[in-house]
Amino acid sequence: MKKTLLHRSLFVSMVAFASGMILSCNNSSDSSKAADSTSNSTATVSSAENTSGTQTAVATLSGTEADTTVEGTATFTQEGTGNVKLDLSVTVAKMANKTVAVHIHEHPDCGMMGKNTHGHWNPTNKQHGKWGTGDFHSGDIGNVTLDANGKGTLTMDTDLWSIGGDSTKNILNRAIIVHSGVDDYKTQPTGNAGSRIGCGVIEKK
Ligand SMILES: [Cu+2]
Question: Which of the four CATH numbers 2.60.40.200, 3.40.190.10, 3.40.50.2000, 2.40.128.50 does domain 54-204 have?
């Protein structure tokens, strides 16, 4: 009897030891995961008031010229303080099989055929260029190739943007401009991308 008890307590303490090892293992190797789930649960708490921890902003694109129809949507999403993901879809039927430049411009006003948006959004005072190589504006999304129906899509993911917050990253209340031409990624400060045929203001959803 005494022996059985001893065995049992030995077994219990071995199980406790083993599970302690598993726990400590999880803690050390998955500390980032643990931190994530902590922040997720914080987000869940606030989501009771805010709907969710995912922020969304949308720009609905339309044409600035009477004879050129431009349609499309730029949808920006951000999980917590993570990267902002852009899903862009643009259709310019008149420009089938061509390539058009798309940028984020500074001001949320599509008036005067897009001119009221002023220049490329450039909060870090960089030279105009190609996204991801050397200097480029935070608004230098780049060129989009349109198919036989004039439709083009582009997706990207970046930590240079945020939905709200820091003014050097905040994409809200700026505008998406679709140009009639191709961005050469060189000419300062515009990329020589042609006229502004499409526009949409980036608004929080
Ligand atoms: Cu532009």
Answer: 2.60.40.200
List, for residues 82-107, the tens digit of each pLDDT value. Answer: 999 999 999 999 999 999 999 999 99
- The domain limits of the chain are 2-50, 54-204
DSSP state of 128: P
- Average pLDDT in the 148-159 region? 98
Gap from CA of 94 to ligand 1 centroid (Å): 19
CA–CA separation, 197 vs 36, rounded Å? 43
Tell how far the Cα of 194 is from the centroid of ligand 1, in angstroms: 8
> If phi over 0 gives left and psi between -120 and 50 gives alpha, with beta otherwise, what is residue 192?
left
Say how many Å lie between the CA of residue 117 and the centre of ligand 1: 9
